[in-house]
Design brief:
Layout lengths: L1 H12 L2 H38 L11 H11 L6 H17 L25 E6 L6 H11 L3 E7 L8 E5 L6 H8 L7 E6 L7 E5 L4
Parallel strand pairs: 1-2, 1-5, 3-4
Antiparallel strand pairs: 3-5
Amino acid sequence: MKILDKLKEKLQSMTLSQTAYPVLSAIFLVLIVVLFTIAARTISTLINDTVKENVPGTNPFSVDQENFLIVAHKLGINTKTETETGTQSAAQATTTANTPQPQEKLPIATTAPSTIVLIPKEINVAIYNGTTVRGGALRLKTLIAQAGFNVVHIGNAKTLVGVTILQMKKSKGAYQSLLTNALGNNYTPKEITQEIPENGEYDVIIILGGAP
């Protein structure tokens, strides 16, 4: 009984403000909890409705493609898909195939001149002494024969000549160097012609002139 009396006295001694603040605080806390619950349910409902309203096969989170490409280009991100890359490669290949390529110039085949085989023994040579020195044609025959030429006739010239003359057929012109080398320095021809007719008896005629 004493405890109850003390509590009763204490309650009676409390002011209105001392009893109202705890009650109001409790009510405010309850209101906050209720509002939070209502807000959470509302947000959940909105999210569910949004997901349900999306058309199948579409992306609910749409992005501005133009702005995305600008940002990606600045960041150095490759935005080309494999399909686009393949299409561009095919287009480049088609352009290359359709572009006329410069034709490679092939070397022109040329026929190398055939090497002429010189056979001195097939050349018929006639030697005439056009000097007053006896035996000159015979000495010259020895030199020409040693070079392999076929000396078929020796004799005296009809007239005296001042220089040694070498005459030959035009078709036998390739033998000129061999003949001049065979004659040596003492019988070097000062006059060389290719005026012997092709049907002539001799291929080469040497007329010894001057003093040997």
